[in-house]
Structures are given as structure tokens and as C-alpha cells.
Known about the structure:
The structure is a homodimer. Chain A is of the alpha/beta class. Chain A has two domains: 6-56, Spermidine Synthase, Chain: A, domain 2; 60-278, 3-Layer(aba) Sandwich (Rossmann fold), CATH 3.40.50. Helix content of chain A is 28%, strand content 32%. Chain A contains ten helices and twelve strands. The first copy, chain A, has helices spanning 60-74, 90-95, 111-120, 122-125, 140-146, 171-179, 198-209, 248-252, 262-267, 273-278; strands at 6-11, 15-29, 34-40, 45-49, 52-56, 80-85, 103-108, 133-137, 151-157, 181-193, 214-221, 229-236. In chain A, the strands form two sheets. Chain A has a seven-stranded mixed β-sheet, with helices on both faces. In chain A, strand 9, helix 6 (171-179) and strand 10 (181-193) form a beta-alpha-beta unit. The longest helix of chain A has 15 residues, at 60-74. The mean pLDDT of chain A is 95. Chain A binds chain B through residues 6, 8, 12-20, 40-43, 59, 61-62, 195, 219, 221-223, 227-229, 256-261, 263-264, 266-274, 276, and chain B through 6, 8, 12-20, 40-43, 59, 61-62, 195, 219, 221-223, 227-229, 256-261, 263-264, 266-274, 276.
Amino acid sequence: MHSDLWVEEKFEDFLGLRFKVEKVLFSGKSEFQTVDVIETKGHGKMLLNDGLVMVTERDEFAYHDMIAHVPLFVHPHPKKVLIIGGGDGGTAREVIRHASVNECTMVEIDAMVVDACKKYIPQTAQALENKKVNLIIGDGVKFVKETTEKFDVIIVDSTDPIGPAQPLFGEAFYQDVYNCLTDDGIVVSQGESSWYAIDIQKSLLSVLKGVFPQCYLYSFSNLTYPGGLWSFTFASKKYHPINDFNPKTVQESQLAFDYYNEKIHQGAFSLPNFVLKALQGLIDN
Amino acid sequence: MHSDLWVEEKFEDFLGLRFKVEKVLFSGKSEFQTVDVIETKGHGKMLLNDGLVMVTERDEFAYHDMIAHVPLFVHPHPKKVLIIGGGDGGTAREVIRHASVNECTMVEIDAMVVDACKKYIPQTAQALENKKVNLIIGDGVKFVKETTEKFDVIIVDSTDPIGPAQPLFGEAFYQDVYNCLTDDGIVVSQGESSWYAIDIQKSLLSVLKGVFPQCYLYSFSNLTYPGGLWSFTFASKKYHPINDFNPKTVQESQLAFDYYNEKIHQGAFSLPNFVLKALQGLIDN
Lengths: 285, 285
């Protein structure tokens, strides 16, 4: 018997990314989205939500290094961290490596994502068993509206602004995020692609700019997302992502990273002219 | 009648990049390779050699800015530039914008690429009509072996090391490149992907390291190449790509770029740890 299975992520109606499937490990449909875990050829295990690639074992370190370590090395003493989304566990895994962090609360809306990753992608989800992690299955929008806790760093590790993640790109949400950050708090959010989704970036940054005194965009290379160049937003009450970053703290932490380093931290805030032009007035890079 | 045409670039046997085709403008087979020009949906006109995407109108500025302006802003007075390959004309277009450059020799092996681009992709190929460009249809390997001319900057704008470009990744070629560079000359070469082709990067850098006193790798984001993060090598007889780069010269040039700027120049030499580790001893970044 011959089988040639591929999974394809379509972008609009003009681009497709196809990955060779070795085996479908899990396929489910939750209240919020479809959830698939696939053993691929060439990229290890892969999580897809609503048909979009979220994580692969091969390159997840790039995304998780860059979403977690940039804010956590800018903030001089991050103790309490909140993650909204991030059901695969990779962001939590990187957050709790920081010695100063003694509590990482994570609010993920979809239990099916967490359960599937715990079972099939322990490379990321194993971190969710760590005692520093306080995992809440629930609505992140509701959580930030209702909580009385304050966090030093909030990481919005969301999917695209369709489906369950849509409110995570809105102003009401970020007003609540602002309110549950400490006076020197930082929020970093999944910020889409400058090549294909500059309008989403504009919209998200307009929201952030209306709430935070400082907003930045930084980029990294994601292997398995359409367009490769991927972005995070960095919004801050006090700290500047480069001027308040002391490169020595990276070495002093004695943490080893596969993607992140001091120079990558600084270089990530250097954006191409076409991005700077499109986001003029919305970012302080 | 319904037609749904796509063109797909396969990477090994586990990845495919598919682009929606509006119209096939040209399909030919030269002595060296197949040559296709396609009007795509979403990426404008696209050139493919042997089925691999070379250039699209949508993102070619990123590649051409980064291959040309990095060496030309490091070298303090580049007058004579040699391009090996680069048949689409985009690299030549950026080279001749530098006021100091009074002669750009380009040696492209495949007349069919040049002719197809002149006819269908004037956005890049129009530059080949400029009087500063001396276009030679011929073998770049033979050219650098036989020429008695000296060049300030040589740009190896090649396809992958299969087919006609294979000798452009070898030691004999780079010994000849060294010999036809001036005493402070720089050579920049298409350097493949750190995600998918780190072995080719290692091999190319080993060759360069055997010939040049200083070797570096720098990266940028290419929208339409597999993996996104793409690299150029920078090998130099004298100049350091950052320490000898004066950011002021970019503004003084009064040139406008869609991708390149002073910070991108510097940030491009910041590499992720997994790349630094794999290339340890081969690069001076």
C-alpha cells in the first residue's frame, strides 16, 4: 500500500505551505477550534489549530525563546508572569527557567490543546507539570478583567485574530492588561507577519499605542509560518527594550539558548524600511 | 471553464511551497536549466530556474538590497563591481545606484534567463540596459580565472549548488575571486538557509575561510524561499562588516531603500545560537 499524506496550510487564496505527514496522532474538535497533532517528516511533531501551524518540534525554540526572553531580560526582576494562551506549554517552559520568576500563571481557553500537547508533544507541554506553573483553563479576556493580581510581565501567546483569539487583539482587553501589570510592567504579544499581515500589525499597534506609553515591534525568523519573518509587539509602562536591557544579565543567568542571545535581542528591533514606513507613528523603534 | 493552476517548489521530500498561478508567461529549457516566468496571484511575476523560485516582484527588493548594499556601504569607495550570475538584473540595479560605482560587470551563464527577464520582469531587468552595466553572457568560473581586471566588490548571485551554479561553491573558484579583488576587496555570496541547508553553509564557509582572512554570515528575511531566514556570506581582505561600516554614509548617499537601513545592516550579522554553534570556527561574527 502506498500512501502520500500531506497537510497544507493555506494563506488567503494564493499561498500554500505543505508538510509531509508520517502519521496523524490526534484530531479533535473542541468548543473553540479544530486541534490536530501530526507526526511530520522533517519537522517532528506539529500542532495545528483550525488548520494553521502553531508549533513544530523542529523550530519551536525560536518562537518560544523570542516571546519569553526578550521581556524577561529587559525587566530587571520579573517575579510574577502571566501567559494568555500558549496551550502547547513552550512559552511557560522558557518563562520558568528564569530564576527570579516564582510564579507563572497561564490562562488557556482550550483544554483540548493542553491535553493533546501533554500527550503527544511533551517537548513543550511537560513544563505545564512544573510547580511554578499555575494553569487555568479559562477565558483570558475574562481573567484580566476580573483578577486583582498584578504581574511584572504578561505574554499574549495567541493564535491569529480569527476564532477564539479575536478579542485578544482588541482595546478593552489591553486596557485590562494594563491594569493588571505592575507599575513597571511589560506586555509582549504574538504580532503576526510584516509581509502578509501588516494591517493586523497596524491595528494591534494602534490599540497598544492608545494604552501604553511605549510600543515596539521586534522580529525573528519562524521556519514554519507563512513568510518566515514573524513579529512580537513589546508594550511597556517604563522600560525601553534596548536602552534598559543589560546584555551582561544574559550571561549571568547561565541559561543556554538555541536561538536567543544578546545580539539577537538587539538586532530583533531593527526593522526593514517597508515595515518602519507602514508602522510610522505606531512604534517607537 | 474552471482552472486552478499552482506552481510548487518542493524542498527535499517533506516540504512544499505552493503559489497560485494567474498565467504562465514563459517556459523554456536552456542548455543549463529550465526557465519559467509566471504571473502569480499575490506575489506578482515570478522567475523559477529548475523549478526553484528565484525572484518575485513582491519581495525581490529584500534580497537585492541585502546582497548589494551591505558590501557597497562597507567598502569606502567601490568603483568597479563584478556580479557573477544575477541574470534577473535586480542586483545590478542596486549596485549602479551607488554614485561611486562607475562600472558594473555582470557575467551570467544563461542568456535565456536574461532574455526572459528583460521581456517579462522589467522591474529588475531594466537595469541591464544601463550604460554602467557591462553584461557578458558566459561562464563566471572561467571569467574570474582568466580576467586581468581587479574589482573592489564581487557579488556571487548564484542559484543553489546544483546544476550550473555548482562550481560557484568550490575552492578553485574562490581562489580566483580572491586574485581578481583589489587589496581591500570584498566578496558577498548567496549563502542559502541556516534552517534547511546548514551543511551547504558549512561547506561554503570552509572554502571561504581557506582563502580569505575574514569571513562572516549575515541574514535577512526572504518571503518566498523555503524557511524564510536566508543568508549571504561576506568575505573580506581588509574590512570588517560592522567596525568599518560608517552608518552616516547611508544617509549621505541620499538613496532610498525599501528594506535596507543602517540598523538592518548591523542587525543582520546577529545570528541565532543554533547558527553560531553550527558554524563555530568558520565565521568571525
